Amino acid sequence: MRVRGRGLPEEAEVELWVVDGRISTEPVAGADTVFDGGWILPGLVDAHCHIGLGKHGEIPLDEAIAQAEIERGAGALLLRDCGSPTDTRSLDDRADLPRIIRAGRHLARPKRYIAGFAVELEDESQLPAAVAAEAGRGGGWIKLVGDWIDRGSGDLAPLWSDGVLKAAIDAAHENGARVTAHVFSEDALPGLINAGIDCIEHGTGLTDDNIALMLERGTALVPTLINLENFPGIADAATRYPTYAAHMRDLYARGYQRIAAAREAGVPVYAGTDAGGMVAHGRIGDEVEALTRIGMSPTEALGAACWQARRWLGRPGLGHGAPADLLCYSQDPRLGPDVLAAPELVILRGNVFRAGVDAAAGRASRPARE
Ligand SMILES: [Zn+2]
């Protein structure tokens, strides 16, 4: 088949053929034109979501499949799963589901993350071995819980000491995996960044010093801006921990400003929704819109969920020979989430999914906010 339209960020004409699930930039005789006019993008990237995670942790595989189908309908064809208790590796055999880059299971300490989500290590010295074991599963990433409420002190606090982090991150890198961490507050950041972590999730507590450190170390940031809207609710629910509640409200109040400062300084920022757990699936369009509120242009924000994120994750765009994972839009996909998350055509591994037929399921189950 053949598609033609304009690409981004160049806005130049793109004409592609799809043969055996791959893109050809060379004409193919007898091709069926399935899209002509409008815009063509590589599949969107949700760089922080969870396929196989529900409100209480592990879920049945058919629910994980439904989550992945919603992402496909919204155009997210490459997902970086930032930790899931459900083993979803069998989904890789499904040609109709988005590609998933996995971080395995969250690594935490007992009672230092949401119950049922993480592998909980009794002693922090177990972390390097646990990281090596998760890396051995071949997902490509490791997910640490960097900070969480310490009910003893009644405030957010780091889970790991600096020396353990260095050994753990070294173990991941020796096993070919990159490492990221959940971090809401200030104190856990220097230890993680100095230990060579590859990415920070959320990052609401970034100080100017830590932003400088990220620049020096080449650390990326996935702020999951739409999930920041859950901070006031988390604070409201923490009636027994007033210091923690006040800290969460303060992080919420300063969050956009701190993420904007990181982006302004030159820290690479990518789009992730944190779908699964507290955020519904299929909201990559909303996250792209949120990124325009930290100073990104609509094109830059879209790149953070598309061509830039693909480059960062080592996955191709629309080049000759790349897997045929692409989206076709009759309207400019920078017009807003209603356009971006509703491509007319989703082409995944060369198979076509049409809006209103397959993709409609995802749109219908996309609540505005949970
Ligand atoms: Zn998450």
From TrEMBL:
Alphabetically, the GO molecular function entries are: hydrolase activity, acting on carbon-nitrogen (but not peptide) bonds
Residues in domain Amidohydrolase-related? 39-329
- One Pfam family named in its UniProt record: Amidohydro_1
**Keywords carried by this UniProt record:** Hydrolase
Protein name per the record: Amidohydrolase family protein
Which organism does this record belong to?
Mycobacterium helveticum
Q: Specify the taxonomic lineage.
A: Bacteria, Bacillati, Actinomycetota, Actinomycetes, Mycobacteriales
